[in-house]
Amino acid sequence: VAVKVIDKKRAKKDTYVTKNLRREGQIQQMIRHPNIAQLLDILETENSYYLVMELCPGGNLMHKIYEKKRLEEHEARKYIRQLILAVEHLHRAGVVHRDLKIENLLLDEDNNIKLIDFGLSNCAGILGYSDPFSTQCGSPAYAAPELLARKKYGPKIDVWSIGVNMYAMLTGTLPFTVEPFSLRALYQKMVDKEMNPFPTQLSSAAINFLRSLLEPDPAKRPNIQQALANRWLNENYPGRAPPNVTYPNRIHLEDLSQSVLLHMTEKLGYKNSDVINTVLSNRASHTLAIYFLLNKKLERYLASLRKAEGQDNICHKNQLYQIEKYKANKDSYEVKLVKAWSFKLPLSKPNCSCLFYNLKDKKVKEQEKKGEILHRQLSKKTEKSPVSYRQPSSCLISQIQNTKAVLKDRKVAKAGGPEK
């Protein structure tokens, strides 16, 4: 996991941070999206405030751009598309991020975008906040001109910031720069559309999409749904972007991993109803953190099995095996294994952190044939077979006999001859 630590003593120096200290955690519990870093737990002490989130081992996108100087168009399209999907999800939930920049874009182990840092985010008509906004915040290089001018603004400021991020990915620089730095001069460049030149290798479709995102007039600038429907953005992608679930976005009961739930109740002592309610409500706690980490570990193992079997095209919901759970009594659960999609895979694969299931042998009693949790692969007892020696060839036998005769003659000669 990754932990964001907020020092309360330093936060007291900024009235805005002090007032909205807990807003970041509240907002992240409202949302769930594959391109947004998942909040797992919130801890608070006298001096610090901790946000425990999922780890993004791919690092910061800024480092990748710095190493490559700039990204290829197809690679930037993937990242921008994922970023727009995440922001569309936020806007549907009534959340405006207000700090979209390259530094807040991380990469997971599969090279997918993970959006972080909701410290400046705000809600429109939710949690008592009103729309439009007027607070001047965020990084000036990524901020929309209406925000810099201290005008009333809305969700379209995120669309402008996406355009700045797209320009940074494709060129390795920012679209508007002034020397020496001045907010007034920066604002004037934005309004006059005096962007830095585009690389010659960029396609006209990418440039046109960039210009539409960096439209200084918010009335002419597309909203996030219109940006998502852009032709360049969906090039080489089948159909439109996958639909998002409108707020409140919660995981469905049928999507919960039954194997993880059983492990947490049977082995870790959690109440099944508590785990289900915590995960469905997306409530940051140690229960949600444990479920998330165990499920992540199981997904990695299933992915390794699919790769080993050459079946990488299997959908996540159609896993190799489907666990059919039913309640046996109030205190215990039994499971049985059902083969899915007619995949005839061996059941003796090594399990993942006690989360795999296996059927008992057919020879056991009838009442025990419902199934059991397999917590470790027991080594099969094999009978010791007698050691078999390889018979030497005739050539080797003759060499051994000759060597013995030579050694015998040397021993006799050393002892003084056969007479002694």
TrEMBL record:
It is an enzyme of class 2 (transferase). It catalyses: L-seryl-[protein] + ATP = O-phospho-L-seryl-[protein] + ADP + H(+); L-threonyl-[protein] + ATP = O-phospho-L-threonyl-[protein] + ADP + H(+). Coiled coil: none annotated. One of its GO terms (molecular function) is ATP binding. Signal peptide: none annotated. GO terms for cellular component: cytoplasm. Keywords: ATP-binding, Kinase, Nucleotide-binding, Serine/threonine-protein kinase, Transferase. It holds the Pfam family Pkinase. Its EC number is 2.7.11.1. It comes from the Eukaryota. One of its GO terms (biological process) is intracellular signal transduction. Residues 1-233 form the Protein kinase domain. InterPro entries: Kinase-like_dom_sf, Prot_kinase_dom, Ser/Thr_kinase_AS. PANTHER family: HORMONALLY UP-REGULATED NEU TUMOR-ASSOCIATED KINASE (PTHR24346:SF80), MAP/MICROTUBULE AFFINITY-REGULATING KINASE (PTHR24346). Belongs to the protein kinase superfamily. CAMK Ser/Thr protein kinase family. SNF1 subfamily. This is non-specific serine/threonine protein kinase. It comes from Neodrepanis coruscans (wattled asity). The gene is Hunk.
